Amino acid sequence: MNSSKHTELANHAWSVADLLRGDYKQSDYGKVILPFTVLRRLECVLEPTRDKVAEIAEQHKESGIDPDRFLRRASGHSFYNRSSLTLKKIAADPQNAAQNLQVYVGAFSDNARGVLDRFEFAQQIKRLDSAGLLYQVIGKFTDLDLRPEVVPNHNMGYIFEELIRRFAEQSNETAGEHFTPREVIQLMVRLLVAPDGDALQLPGAVRTVLDPACGTGGMLSAMDDLIKELNPDATVEVFGQELNPESWAICRSDLMIKGQDPENIAFGNSFSDDGHKRKTFDYMLANPPFGVEWKKVKDEVEDEHKALGDAGRFGAGLPRINDGSLLFLQHMISKMKPVDVSGGGGSRLAIVFNGSPLFTGAAGSGESEIRRWILENDWLEGIVALPDQLFYNTGISTYFWILTNRKSPDHKGKVVLLDARDQWQKMRKSLGDKRKALGKEHIAEVVKLYGEALAVAGDAEHPLHGKVKVFANEDFGYQRITVERPLKLRFEVTEETLAALEASKAIQKLPQASVLADAFKSLMGASWGAKQEAWLALKDAVVQAGGTWPTGAPFNKALRDVLGVRDPGGEVQVVKGQPEADAELRDYENVPLREDVEEYLRREVHPHVADAWIDHSKTKVGYEVPFTRVFYVYEPPRPLAEIDAELKALETEIQSLLGEVTE
Questions:
Q1: Do the beta carbons of residue 385 and residue 399 sit within 8 Å?
Q2: Residues in domain DNA methylase adenine-specific (predicted)?
C-alpha cells in the first residue's frame, strides 16, 4: 500500500470531524475517531470467523464451562466477539444504536474490551447518543474498509499515526510524544541488529524486545519485522510500557491482531510502576520525550536511588528534574541480560536523545555520574548524530546512543562517533517540525558506515573518514580541578573602614564597640603592609583610648574583613602555616583524565600565575561527549574583497531597479 492510500483512509476516518463540529471541541475529535477506528479494525479482522465464533458461543451458553479458549481457537486470534451484531447492523437501527453498541462492545473478549475502555469509550457512546450523532458516526465507519488483506498491519500503523498526529495538532499536544517517524525507526533497528545478523539466522532463534516508552508500538513492530526478515522462523516476543492511554490502547490492539500477547504491553509510568520487573531482554529501544520533567515521580525515583543504590535502577545518579531522558537509559540498562562466562547472553539497546545528555551537568553532577558509570563499564558502543528537522515535534538535532554489554573484541574500550547529519532528503510537504526524511539509500549508507567505523576511522584516505571518529572511553573523562591563589591584603583605616566597622555584627556585639570606633578614628588615613603592624598600631590606639584589646578568632576575622583590602602586592595571609586561598581569585580547569594535573598546572597556569596551586580535596572526575566540537571544521571567513564586490553588484542592481520604477 502506498502512502497516498493510507492517507486516504486516514482522511475518511477524520471526516467524522465534520459531524462532530459544534457538539465537540476540536481538541476532543480524537476521543471519538481513534476508538472507532480501533473498533472498526478489530471488526474487520474478526469478520472471516464471526459466524463460527457465534456458533461456538451459542453451544457453550448453558454448559457452565468457560468457553474462552474455544472461542479464541475459533476466531483464529487471541481475541473474539461473541455477538452477532456488526457496526452496519447497529447503524441501521438508530433508535437502539447506543444500547446495541454497548452490547456489541461488551461481547468482546476481556483483552479487546480493555483496549476500548482505555479510550473511555462508554462515555463517548453516551455523549454521541445525547447529541443524536451516534448512528451517523457508526455509519461513517462502516464504509471504512480495514480488512487485513486491504490494509496490512504495517500500513495500519501508518493510519493510526496519521490520526494521532492530527489529534495532537488539534489539542496542541506534541505528536512526537506518541510515535517516531518510521524511517528513523528503520535506521535505529538496523543499527541495533546489524552485528547480530548471523546469530539471528540460526534455526530456533528466540529474541525478546522491550520499548519502555512504546507509544503506538512502531518500534516494536519494526524490530519484529526486521528479525523475521532475517529469519522467518525466528520467535520474537515484544514487550512495552506506555503512559498515554490512547497510545497504549492502539499498541495493545496492534499486538492482539498480530498474534502477540497483548499482556506484554504494560500501562503506567516506567519509573514509578515498572511493568516488567525482574525481566531482562535481548534488545531494547526507545524514543523517550525530550526535556520532560520527572517531578510527578520524584519521590519514588529518589527513594529507589537512596534505598537500593546500585542494586536498583538509578544507583548511578539522578539527572536534573526537568529532563528524565537519562532515567530511561538507566531503566533500560537495568534490564540487560548478563553475559555468561563463555561470552553468550548480553543485550543491545538504542535510545534517541537530544544533545543535552551528551554534556549537560558539571563533574560530580547526576548527569556526569551517569555518563561516567556507562563509560567506565564499557557499555557505550557508539553515538550517531542525525539530521535536524527529522522529528514531528522538534527541529533540533537528535542522536542515537547505542549500548551493549557484549562488545566485540575490536570495540572493547572504544566508542564510535558517527556524523550522519548530512544524510537526508527534503520532504515534499512538511509535517509539523518535520521537513527532512531519511531515504533508503541514506539508511543503507549509515548502517554500512557504522559497521565499518573502525576501518574508516583508521583510513585517512577513505572518502568518509571525516564522518567517523573512534575514541577510548577515557578520552571523554576529565578532572575538574580547583586552582587557588593566595589571599593578599594590605590594611588601612578609611571612611569605608569605619562604616564597615559599624555594620559588623561580630564587632558591634562587643561591650566596648564604641571605644574601638573612637580609637580607629584616631588612625584615619593610616595604612600598613603587614597584618602584625596594623594590629600593633590598632591595639596601642585602643589602650590609649582607655579600652582593652578583644581576643578570640571571631573578632580577629571580623577585624581583618573590615580593615583588609585586596592588593596584588600585599601580604600573603596564612592559616595554620599554609597560604590562605582567595575565593575571589579561585578558578576551575578541566584537565583530560589521562593527564597529570600538576604537570598541567606547571605548563598552563604557572607561566601566568606563579603562586597558584591545586586544592586536590576539591578535584572531581566528570565525563562528557563533546560531539559538535569533535566534528567541528573551521571555515575561514570570505575575503573582504569578495564581500565588497558582491555589495557593489547589489548596489548596482538596486539602482537599476529604482531607475525602472521612476521612469
A1: yes
A2: 154-453
